[in-house]
Structures
1.
Amino acid sequence: MNETAPPRPSEPPVVTVKPPSPENLWAEMSVAINYLTRFNLSFRDEPKSSLIRRSMVWFPIIGALIGFAGAGAGWIVAVMRMPGIISAVAAVVAMLFLTRALHEEEFATLIDNYGKNLDREAKVEWLKEERSVRYGTLGIILIIILKIGAIASLNDFTLIFQTMIVAASWSRAVMVVAAAWLRPIDGDPVADHFQQPTALRVVIAVAVAGIIAYSALGDDAATVMIAGGISGLIVALLGANHLRGYNGALLGTLQQIVEVTVFGMVLALQ
């Protein structure tokens, strides 16, 4: 007489992926919005460190919205029949206002630190005059002039919208890559909060930024992204060699350099 074998208990899958809840998704996005913009969204509970680290996946999307808002401000001024240089100024000022000039300030901090090191290495003993203009201030002026000049030189506002969206999105995606690659420097508020995002989050952030770039620029997106990535890599290597990690100043500098590089590559390709 054949006996029926008892059914085997179902084995759990090797890898389980739990979809995030809508509350967690909104909390992650809120952290990214609060950091990258001047908006201050409130939380019901204090966000955990893991949630803050995961929020970096939203950086490219928030960046794209920042670029769209800046281009929109420039377009409104252009509709008022203002010269192209004035609409370009409006676009840059709108982004500065929306982001509270966060990355520009971080860029200035890093440039100023390097400038002080140069002064110490090339010190003239008989001339001890204090500097009245910091290197960081000069760096901000230069970077803003480059942005205004690039926007004013683009052919039409469709291309301006496309370029500003890609530049703002891709530059913030490269920030996520740098944060995952470099060691967070202890004591820095940005590094202490965001730490190192997981590999999955980095892949998603880069993929989202890539989709945005290809949707906006088409076949030219690869060239623009590669050029921006190389410039970001150079800044990240400076952090690896001199800072032995990353901090807010390094990420802000990287974002500004990648953004300007994207503008320059689109100008070269148009």
2.
Amino acid sequence: MKKRILAIAMAASMVLGASTAAMAADKLTLGTGGTTGTYYAIGGVMATVLNPVLKESSLTVTSTGASKANIQLVDMGEADLAVVQNDVMYYAYTGTDLFEDEGAYDTFSTVAGLYDETVQIVTCDSSIASVADLKGKTVSVGDAGSGTEFNAEQILGVYDLTFDDINVVNASFGDSADSLKDGKIDAAFIVAGAPTTAVVDLATTKDVSLVQLDEEHIGKLQETYDFYTKTVIPAGTYSGVEEDATTVSVRATLIASNDVSEDAVYELLAAMFDNQEDLIAGHAKFEFLNLEDAVKGISVPFHPGAVKYFGEQGIEIE
């Protein structure tokens, strides 16, 4: 009888121990984007590579409507982590532009900037050499209400242009490339990692050029919108583009709910940098993850776990 009681007690202890261990690791939902997009792909790589080494948490990846939807999901408690553009999270934090109607969100904080999403102004018209040359032209500015549309408006603004000065077309990147190919538009704003597939395909059939931003106007843009970083698209990124092109980028950024523990975020960041080679093997975008750039162009406060990690690495958060 005593042996049976002891066995039951040991079994109960094992179950309790397993339950306690399971409770110790927070199950964190990571909001990404559409299943064919980069956000979803990098989220899957993070879960595959990092879950075996994480002790404070485990990642579950979910497909979402990307940046704006991700911030809303974090706010509602349906996602704990998310990948978003740093300009969109600025709009959410300040209740401006994309979030002007619904107001500010303060339930999330920054974990790290991941990689650049570059503002590419693409044209097949050799007479368009500057943003100023877009005046009077037919220009795709991205989907209506998209982050790209706001990027276009802001960049035109520092050249003293508005949407009233161009013939505005709202279209996806793929549709914009098709319209450039068919001569239906003169230029297109495309905000994505370079090279972008739609532009790569276009450059195989048409002579493509990239409209550059000059130093003066980049500085003016950054004075008002500090989420932009200066970027150079290297020569050869697209067929026929034989010179470097200076522009700006926003950054794909990892955010966390303020309810996620400091320890979980600290461990997640440490695991990302400690296992970066394995992350790169899963997706090339992780080549652009580095300590210095991870804190650049960020205008939303960092999560305490991120503050602790970057502080220990000697990285000053602006």
3.
Amino acid sequence: MSTTKSKPVSDASSRAAARKAWWDRYVHALKYSLHVITHPFDGFWDLTREGHGTLAAANTFMLLFLLTRVLKLMYTSFQFVDVAVQHINVFQQMGSLLLPFLILCLANWAMTTLFDGKGRFIDIYIAMCYALVPYILIQLPMVLVSNMLTFEEASIHTVLLTVSVIWCAFLAFVGLMQIHDYSPGKTLIFVVVTVVGAAVIIFLILVFFSLLSDALGFFVSLYREMAFRLN
């Protein structure tokens, strides 16, 4: 009897311990981003190989990146951003960043797999999400700061935003180099190849949907013609 009663208690304790372990690892992965952006060479190496990064943390950074972009367009002072707020489509703005990001990750994985790249798609995605952290840390507060600056102080705003973009680009480069265990020269070559590959993927997607649209249009016209003749 005691064994039967203790089993549910044991299962509940195991689930609680598993949830706590997951949460602790998630919090550690979030905090580890500060080490990655300040010590990128060993940070990116340990991110995937030592398990310091998690997919949940990467998704969190991606979500914050997309929110930062939307908030930047909606709430940055009109002195620095000339956007018709009433015409902003939040989901369209997010999709216009997320889709190219995923295509670039896919293109990099596809190209590097053919040339001894050691990174998996999930590793590339996690590393690239961590590379976005400076964008979040700098540009999100600048949304508020922009409303406190005068037009004469615009150079401060521009410099900080430029620094965030350059920092992210540098982190992405180092991240790809460490993940695939490439030299800087080989990494630079595959950055170019990745952009070309992403362009090819986007072209094929557009061609596919164009053909699909034409095919659907043909069958709809055929159906209407048949319905008209039968009537």
